[in-house]
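Notes, Module 5: Reading structure tokens.

Key idea: the token line is not a picture. It is a compressed description, and you learn to read it the same way you learned to read a sequence, by spotting repeated patterns. We will look at two proteins. The first is printed below with its tokens.
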Amino acid sequence: MPASPRLARESGERSESRPRYSSLQARSGGAATTEQEQPIDWFITSLLFLFPAFGGLLFGYDIGATSGAIVSLKSAATSGTTWYELSPLQSGLAVSSGLLGALAGSGGAFAFGEKLGRRRELLLAAACYGIATLVTASAGSYPQLLAGRTLYGLGIGFAMHAAPAYIAETTPARVRGLLISLKEGFIVVGILLGYLASSQFIDSVGGWRYMYGLSLLPAILLGAGMLWLPESPRWLLLSGASEEEATANCCRARGQYGRDEGAVRSDVSDMASTMQASRSSTEEAGFSALFKGRNLRPLTIGMSLMLFQQITGQPSVLYYATEIFEKAGFASQSDASKVSVGLGFFKLVMTGLAVLTVDSWGRRPLLLLGVSLLTVALAALSAVNTFLPASSPTATWTSVVALLLYVGAYQASFGPISWLMVGEVFPLAVRGPAAALASLTNFGSNFLVSLVLPTVQDSLGLGTTYAVFAGIGIVSLITIYNIVPETRGKTLEEIEALWDKDQ
């Protein structure tokens, strides 16, 4: 049947306004693009990853260090303050103020992150981290402690928004998955370093000051590195900079292989063509364009992965980890920090598995397999806590196996790949605000789960709580199967071309 005049006209308009999209779509299923064929200068590529990844390491370090810092701060023997007698509410605020700051940072990234650019936003994160470290470590009062913790959280919000986008936009397509996933590994390394710092200074007077103060060095490295690295060429084009400026920064990002200016100019031209088409459709509808047409599906993918990452039971499972290991005879209550370190190493190993396979197996298979296994683990924990006596060896060992299965499956799927997808699925014209909304979803749902989880567990019981999480796991699995495409090996422009069919 011939197409209607209206459809034919709209199709022709799209072809004229986006002449390169059809070629990108064709090349994504056929020959590799110039960017994919470009040799990799591993030295500069490593730096393009390493310095932004310090933002994730500092996020993880805060999680690990705070676990020991609060214990140190509240002890009359080790606090070194006159205000160590903190109420449960004050202790909770000291911990959660960082998360509230991260929420505020994500909101700030949504409001003006696109004006700042990836590089300057990471510099702002480094400044927040550094100043907050000094404020917190020197805190002479509880309000100063809260101010430092909140400012540190602002740094987390800015860093976790800008780092995935910067890495995705500046590194070669065929190692993009490896590098963004490895950033999650840096978060886990940060958690481990925080645990180790806690165990080192837990018995020292004022030890909490050292635990927090040690984050100053990576904050300085983050700032110094981002001062030296180039700005994202894709953001430069989006901000209205010339193709010449974008080409110069792209050449720097490719190191010794950026000397072939002709090849780089060709790639920058493709970036510019894609950006112009994407931006023109977004500017017509403003903010509402995020929720329409070609932008809706990637936004749904990013926000749903961030949501499911937080509401599939991770806080509940890890909360009872030490208790499960105690019952199995692996540790006494006094060895809780050792259990945390051991579990942290296991998380790191499983994250490493995802990092090594994400560009060979693909994002979608790892997500589907990992979420399936963590759902099975949640169902097993539910069954154990519902049908078996808590003291029985069968219940104890089943819980240990289910716990390890859950942690391993999570770290090989939701842990790294959710942030990876946030870094690569959004169209360039809306990447900044869309990534900020995804970050807000992550930190907001994290805060809400942490807030209501004790009440839910008290009301429903542990078995029913795990059953609810298993049900959410099934919903997330169905969602991933239906809306998440495979993006392995595609340039950001080729990924953006996938959304044209949603118009």
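Here is the second protein, with the sequence above and the tokens below, as before.
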Amino acid sequence: MRLGIRANLAQFSLLVGVNALVGGMLGQERTVLPLLADETFHLTGYTFLLTYVLAFGVTKAATNYFAGTWSDRFGRKPVLLAGWLIALPVPLLLIWAPSWAWVIAANVLLGVNQGLTWSTTVIMKIDLAGPHRRGLAMGLNEAAGYLAVAVTALATGYLAAHHGLRPAPFLLGLSYAALGLGLTVFAVRETRDHAKLEAAGHQSTGELTNREVFARTSLREPALSSASQAGMVNNLNDGLAWGLFPLLFATAGLSVSRIGILAALYPAVWGLGQFVTGPLSDRWGRKRLITTGMLVQAVALAMVAAVETFPAWVVAAILLGVGTAMVYPTLLASIGDVAHPAWRARAVGVYRLWRDGGFAVGAVLAGVVADVWGLRAAVWVVAVVTAVSGLVVAVRMYETHPRRTVEVQGEAR
């Protein structure tokens, strides 16, 4: 048993594919669900409409925490398997939903599915990759997931335009769940022993209680807590894009197919960009990319709020994807840098608890502001929050990549 992506290439590649299926489960909703809320269920009030984002965010955030704890206690594969079993009813509930309550119930299950499966694939890849190529590992993992979000959002937009909002778009999700379950049962292998191998090379045992891990990751440790707040704001942005962007674009008279293009473009650039930004963080370090990425996202959101045409929104979506690509895999890599292998899975779970709590915060914040002052005002508010988050990282976070940290210390001497 060895550490490293090349040494574990077959299993690592399989897990990249599995995470693409995880992302596809999320992508089935990106284009269609806001339109379904408006056209089929005739919901009024943005806060009420965003209840599905709130339900998803709360359950995914909580499940992330337990996924990390359970991965240490029971192993990675059982947690991944449980996540896929919970995924199976989600597309069926969306297809058959006679009321909005069914949609909320489906998103509760989707949140549990995403928390268990995505968290576990992250932990497993960190286990396999070892300490020096975590940026590359997280770039590949997140790229696969969010490219699948983009492709599925585009595909469901096409299916909705040609075959209606239900059931055709959600049949993709059903196929993803079945395939993910099958691969997990028959092909995925346990990786917990790889974490134990890495831990054996550390001088300290690194044992901490769950409460200590939570406190360090949330507040006490500067890099971990900076990453947690930046992750939360990043997904606050994504919740806004998921729930309100299609409605904002629709107010400008864009067709369903054009809304689908915009809904797919942002995660597509985000996904593809991580092929570059993940390994780049292994060379340049983490802090620089995170700070710059948050500020780029703030500029992109301000542009979404300010412009009114499809070409301008295309540019804004690309810019938002670039900024998110700079941040997303780099935050995960920084958690892996700082956390000891003995409690790393739990630290990833706590980080993802805060990060995906951003969906819930974004649903409430954006929904309330949109109801009171309008859609564009909600986007402006989130743009300001994102800029402030980037400044917090610039002030509080230190460089976490092992090689870059040694170089900086050497230059200081």
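Summary for the second protein:
- Residues 9-195+221-412 form a domain with the Growth Hormone; Chain: A; fold (CATH 1.20.1250.20).
- Residues 100-129 form the longest helix (30 residues).
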